[in-house]
Amino acid sequence: ISRMMFQNPILVILDQPTNHLDLESIQSFNEGCQTFPGIVLITSHDHTFIQTVANRIIELTPRGIIDRLTTFDEYMEDKRVQEIRMEYYA
């Protein structure tokens, strides 16, 4: 990742980037993602990482895509999203 960052990419795709990292490394990685000037497309089960880094949530469901410009916590609390998710997963 460090070598790639020196190439000044405009898009970085990361799959579970905080797995197997210690707390200090995760915090440093979070800060790096927050200050990255391009697009960071991530998948993660790390709630804190998603909440601190993501400002747009795209959920792929069996019946379509839910796309919102919001934090993860706000996304999960959104009543409209909850209704859509219940419809998709019912």
Topology readout:
Blueprint: H1 2-5, E1 11-15, H2 23-35, E2 39-43, H3 47-53, E3 57-61, E4 64-68, H4 72-77, H5 79-89
Parallel strand pairs: 1-2
Antiparallel strand pairs: 3-4
Q: Quick summary of this structure?
A:
By secondary structure, this protein is an alpha+beta fold. It has five helices and four strands.
Walk me through the structure.
The chain is of the alpha+beta class and 90 residues long. 46% of the residues lie in helices and 22% in strands. It is built from 5 helices and 4 strands, in the order H-E-H-E-H-E-E-H-H. Strands 1-2 form a two-stranded parallel ribbon. It is elongated, with a radius of gyration of 15 Å. The mean pLDDT is 88.
Shape: elongated
Oligomeric state of the chains in view = single chain
N-to-C SSE string, H for helix and E for strand: HEHEHEEHH
Calculate the mean pLDDT score and round it.
Answer: 88
Tell me the Rg in angstroms. Answer: 15 Å
Number of helices: 5
pLDDT < 50 stretches: none
Q: Strand share of the residues?
A: 15-25%
Amino-to-carboxy terminus distance: 39 Å
Adjacency order of strands in the biggest sheet: 1-2
Which structural category do the helix and sheet elements fall into?
Answer: alpha+beta
